[in-house]
Input
Amino acid sequence: MKLARFVIPALFLILLAGFLALQAGPRPASVEDEINKFEQQANAAYEANDLPKYFSFYAQDFSQFLPEGRTDLAQYRKDWSAYIGEGNRIQKVELSDMHIQVGPNKDSAVASYLLHVRTKLKDGKITDEDNQESDVLFKRDGDWKVVFLHYSAAAKK
Output
């Protein structure tokens, strides 16, 4: 009987402490946070000219509209790899004005933003461009992937 007087309150305190610890733990990231992190990582790989990592952010059925027209992943990989292979290098990428819209099932999203890109061309010339980008993302098998991208020059100020 004496033991029960100590054990029951001790168990209650342990359960209470466990419950409070779970409540105080980090909250799961929102879909918006996941997409923002995804975009930061994808654009960091772009800035680093890390082509294998960069292309890992794209779905196999990816397509895009660039100013030159529509392409698929195979063509984009071929064209961009050739461009970087010639000695052109992205030097700086800055994202701003991020706007994220999440689908009702939380497995699709659109991220649109302004993208400032500084590139050092193979001839040594430096370019600075402001672009508008919209990425359509699907969550498949637990991973976000870009399935469609639209990229165009931003209007000059």
